[in-house]
């Protein structure tokens, strides 16, 4: 996504920009970016594993975790893995989300 925004800026920016062109250029960039982000959707899935860890599918980010055995201590590792910190966990669930175009 960063690549697309960078490419957009490079395409819209003329080789030589004068001071009076800057507001127009910024308005154009804001317009295109808002159209692009306006089409984005949040897609979420739940993943459950029978251990202390639950990993999100590729491209998804863990946004929250849930643990079995009444364990309320968890953390998110590497942005996509839920880890329940209690001993002898019977299950761990991760709520995983990503932004996507429709």
Key terms:
102 residues; alpha+beta; Immunoglobulin-like; three-stranded antiparallel sheet; 2 helices; 6 strands; elongated
- The radius of gyration is 21 Å
Shape: elongated
Q: In the CATH hierarchy, what is the class of the domain at 44-100?
A: Mainly Beta
Helix and strand run: HHEEEEEE
Strand order of the largest sheet: 1-6-3
Mean pLDDT: 82
| Name of the CATH superfamily of the domain at 44-100 | Resistin head domain
Q: Structural class, please? A: alpha+beta
CATH architectural arrangement of the domain at 44-100:
Sandwich
Count of helix runs:
2
Strand content: 35-45%
Number of strands: 6
Largest sheet: 3 strands, antiparallel
Q: Uncertain segments of ≥5 residues (pLDDT<50)?
A: none
Kindly report how far apart the N and C termini lie: 15 Å
Question: Helix coverage percent of residues?
Answer: 25-40%
InterPro entries: RELM (IPR009714), Resistin-like_sf (IPR036262)
Organism: Engystomops pustulosus
Subcellular location: Secreted
Signal peptide: 1-19
């Amino acid at each position: 996504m960063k690549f697309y925004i960078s490419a957009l800026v490079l395409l819209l920016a003329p080789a030589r920009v004068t001071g009076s062109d800057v507001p127009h250029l910024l308005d154009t960039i804001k317009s295109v970016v808002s159209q692009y982000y306006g089409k984005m959707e949040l897609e979420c899935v739940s993943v459950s594993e029978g251990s202390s860890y639950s990993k999100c599918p590729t491209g998804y980010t863990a946004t929250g975790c849930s643990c079995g055995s009444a364990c309320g201590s968890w953390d998110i590792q590497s942005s996509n893995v839920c880890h329940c910190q209690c001993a002898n966990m019977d299950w761990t669930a991760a709520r995983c989300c990503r932004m996507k175009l429709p």
